[in-house]
Amino acid sequence: MSQTDMNIFETLESEVRSYCRSFPTVFTKAKGYKMWDEDGKEYIDFFSGAGALNYGHNDPKLKAKLIEYIQNDGITHSLDKATTAKGAFIKSFNDVILKPRKLDYKIMFPGPTGTNTVESALKLARKVTGRTDVISFTNGFHGMTIGSLSVTGNASKRKGAGIPLQNTVTMPYDNFVNEDSNTLQYLERFLEDNGSGVDIPAAMIVETVQGEGGINVARFEWLRKLESICKRWGILLIIDDVQAGVGRTGTFFSFEEAGITPDIVCLSKSLSGYGVPFAITLFRPDLDVWSPGEHNGTFRGNNHAFVTATAALDYWKDDSFEKEIKKKSKMTLDFLKEIADKYPELKGEVRGRGLMVGIACGEEELASKVAAEAFTRGLIMETSGPKDEVFKLFPPVNIDEEGLKKGFEIIEESVKSLVK
Ligand code: PMP
Question: What separation in Å is there between the alpha carbon of 235 and the centre of ligand 1?
Answer without folding.
Answer: 23
